[in-house]
Amino acid sequence: MRIGYGWDSHEFKAGIPLRIGGITLPHDKGLGGHSDGDVLLHALTDALLGAIAGPDIGSLFPPSDPQWKGADSAVFLREALKRVAVAGYELVNLDSVLILAAPKIGPHADAIRKRVAELCGIAADCVGIKAKTPEGIGTEGAAIASATVLLRSATSS
Ligand SMILES: [Zn+2]
Asked: Which residues make beta-bridge pairs with 143?
């Protein structure tokens, strides 16, 4: 068995789509920076890579490389899952926390859970999506995500 942990943050910027967990949420701002700014998929990708002691997302997909500008972050997640399989492991379940002031994640949590489960090839009841508002930490201009994964050996049942 292996565990992995990932963390990420991106700043809100006006006029770009808000992508979280592989879906687009209705909001007047999106997350800038690396690729499509999908903070949850980035944290999850790093958790998977960390569980197999692999290189982190920034090493595999440097933000400075123009080919990743605006890229669908599902590409990064798929690469991490491929590396997990090559290392002889499979994903059992994942848990995550989003910290953002707006929009409210509650109405979208099921859609995010379903999409993340689909991307990861696991059941939706193996995907934890929790959201908090940034009480007293002064991060209203950003979205923060952390993710934890559990892997098991693909050869044992
Ligand atoms: Zn990121």
From this structure: 10
